[in-house]
Amino acid sequence: MENKNHYRYENEMDTAVLWLKDTPPVRGSGAPRLRSWMVPALMAAVLLVLIVVLGVYNSKKSERLASTEGRVSNLTDTVQSQSVSLLHAQETIKELQQLQFSVQNQREQLAAVSDALKHLSVVESLVRSVADLRSSLNSLVNNGSAADRCGSPGWTRFGSSCYFFSRVTLSWNESKDWCEKQNAHLVIISTDGEWDFITKKSIPVWYWVGLSDGRTGKWEWVNHTPYTMEQRRWRPGQPDNWVVPVHGSEDCAHLYENGLLNDLHCYRQLRFICQRHDGHM
């Protein structure tokens, strides 16, 4: 039984082998070939996509890089500009500090000048007080003889005239009227001797004299005698005929504290000098 079965099995195996050998290959079966080129193609496609993506990415990255470089360049320019501005500001601060130091020095100098002027004012006041005391002393010493020679106290003789140096202050016109009431006139100074005598007694006080340009616009004495200009008798730059809207021009002359002539507005209150000749004593 086993031999029969074994024989049958061998026959079936032989028949199957023959059948396989005789069977021709089936046409149209391209699966292996399709697989052989499909995988590289797919890989090539993926690689191409990657290349495109990378190209786009690199392009955008380049644009961003260029933009960043532009911003960095702008920032660099801004920083440089700010640096220059800062340098200018520092120089300006230094100049301001120097100006502040200069202003402080000027203030200190002005303060020193102010103090000096205060002291000078005190000195001038003392000088005037001493001059007044000297004048009073001379009046007391010479009171009797002066009264005998000029006819009334307070008058001082020089040459053929007597002179009165006032203690009160009046305007030029008021001074003129006061002198005329004393049978005199505001002083007319004609000679060098008179100049020396009067200036020695007047310094350092301001005194009206009988000289004005208010009547004709030309300088003349109170007796209408024309005045011959002697610039050496005037302060430098005078007379300047300075005009003030309310009070007009400076039309009256007075002796300045140094004994030189100066023009002044006639309304000002000053001391004055009267002159009286022998024939009116």
UniProtKB/TrEMBL annotation:
Q: Tell me the leader sequence span.
A: none
Residue stretches spanning the membrane: 37-57
According to the UniProt entry, its GO molecular function terms are:
carbohydrate binding
Which stretches make up the C-type lectin domain?
Answer: 158-275
Under the heading Pfam families, the entry gives: Lectin_C (PF00059)
Keyword vocabulary terms for this entry? Disulfide bond, Lectin, Membrane, Transmembrane, Transmembrane helix
Residue ranges that the Swiss-Prot or TrEMBL entry lists as coiled coil: none
Q: Does the keyword Disulfide bond apply?
A: yes
Gene3D superfamilies given in the database record: Mannose-Binding Protein A, subunit A
The source's domain of life comes to Eukaryota
| Cited PANTHER family | MANNOSE, PHOSPHOLIPASE, LECTIN RECEPTOR RELATED
Official protein name in the record: C-type lectin domain-containing protein
Source organism per entry reads: Oryzias javanicus (Javanese ricefish)
State the taxonomy lineage. Eukaryota, Metazoa, Chordata, Craniata, Vertebrata
